[in-house]
Design a protein that fits this description.
alpha/beta, single chain, 7 strands
């Protein structure tokens, strides 16, 4: 599976796939970690514009990337959350770890 991403100085935007299941989460983890290390990323943005589903392995992947970024003085943001993904985020407590772009979420 190939993922789309954009890098700018110190920043990485990852466009997440339609479904983040165990397979996609594992591949995202590997690729994002490599990009963080190679490009010295301090700001990591997950763009959920195309994502409709995320299971617990996706949640774990996000928590792990949040910790990794925290160790290096960086941070993680989430963008373009639809109502379904927002519910998953809140139930998992992810807004405590990951900054969410407020105008895109559903309350």
């Amino acid at each position: 599976m190939e993922f789309e991403y954009e890098t700018k100085t110190g920043s990485l935007r990852v466009y997440t796939p339609r479904e983040i299941d165990e397979c996609a989460a594992s591949e995202l983890r590997t690729e994002v970690d490599m990009l963080i290390d190679n490009y010295q990323i301090r700001r990591l943005i997950f763009d959920f514009m195309n994502t409709e589903f995320m299971d617990s392995s996706g949640i774990g992947m996000l928590i792990g990337r949040s910790r990794k970024m925290g160790y290096s003085g960086g941070y993680v943001e989430a963008d373009h959350l639809n109502e379904r993904v927002w519910k998953i985020f809140t139930l998992a407590g992810l807004p405590k770890l990951i900054s969410v772009v407020k105008e895109e979420v559903y309350d």
